[in-house]
Write a structure and sequence with these properties.
The structure is a single chain. 45% of the residues lie in helices and 11% in strands. The chain has 16 helices and 9 strands. A 4-stranded parallel β-sheet has the order 5-4-6-7, sandwiched between helices. A 3-stranded antiparallel β-sheet has the order 1-2-3, with no helix packed on it. Strands 8-9 form a two-stranded antiparallel ribbon. A hairpin with a 2-residue loop joins strand 2 and strand 3. The protein is globular, with a radius of gyration of 19 Å. Bound molecules: adenosine-3'-5'-diphosphate (A3P). The site of adenosine-3'-5'-diphosphate has 22 residues, from helix 3, helix 7 and helix 14.
Amino acid sequence: EEEEIERIYNSYRNIIATLPRNRGWATQHLCQYQGFWFQPLVGLEGIMWMQQHFISRPTDVYLISSPKSGTTWLKALLFSIMNRTRYDFSTHPLLTTSVHECVPFMDLDLFKTTPIADPEVLSSPRLFATHIPFTLLPDSIKNSSSPIFYISRNPKDVLVSLWQFMMKVKPKDLPPLSLEDAFEMFCEGISPCGSYWDHVLGYWKASLEFPSKILFLKYEDMKEEPLLNIKRVAEFVGRPFSLEEEENGSVQEILTLCSFEKMKNLEVNKNGFYRVRNTKNDVFFREGKVGDWENHLTNEMAKRLDEISRQKFQGSGLMF
Ligand code: A3P
């Protein structure tokens, strides 16, 4: 079986070698596959594997995002909501375990090179995360009755967050990308899992078409009205909060446990290691604010990003 898996992954690498390439952010190249740009050896093979072999279960729950849109936060919230009768807040796994181990990325971690974990052994309901664009989703996920949670974020903060993150995780022997170059590439759609705009629009349109399957969330809304949004999430996952839970403080406990300040300062997230990726857990916690782009982008850059958003989102009803 191992040899068979090795053979399959080698065949993916052979295909990847023929794909259009561009400069990478934290990998040598980005490769264009089915209209989007991906990092080879950090997720593209996983997407190919998922498209061919992934078998969904009706009880699965999926969390999908374009990178740096608030995935870590929503992972923590969903994990806490779904497991709230299982764990006590004083001994909660999120206090000592990286949220990325509690809720694995499918493309980036589970099926990155050889499948490192057998998804069949995970107990239901399985909670999975992925950055895969809507049009590339395996049919098995698209056609299932599972809920999809999509989290989006304004492109200016995404660009700043993405650039800072990629510069932290890139191998030392790879030359850094300047913010100016990163900006140009982002505008052209050449960013990991980009184009950012196509990613967001794909799920936005799908959420309008399938409102009972896809819940489209915004990082900014969640920051502004956390209580309202956590209730929407709990309802959509089929585990609405009871009146008692609202009154006895459980809902607030989840919000506090998953808050940026709380998570960032946990020992596991300050000094712990993300084994699968060989990075420190702290790379996932930076500012956690809305509008930090103002401290990094020039007015010109902001204007150009706004103009692209205006053009791309025109007529779709989506705005940031
Ligand atoms: P900044 O770089 O702007 O600070 P992702 O989880 O999709 O990789 O997105 C990372 C962004 O979410 C980072 O944004 C990070 O600081 C922020 N973030 C991480 N955990 C968070 C939390 N619990 N609440 C709010 N924001 C969080």
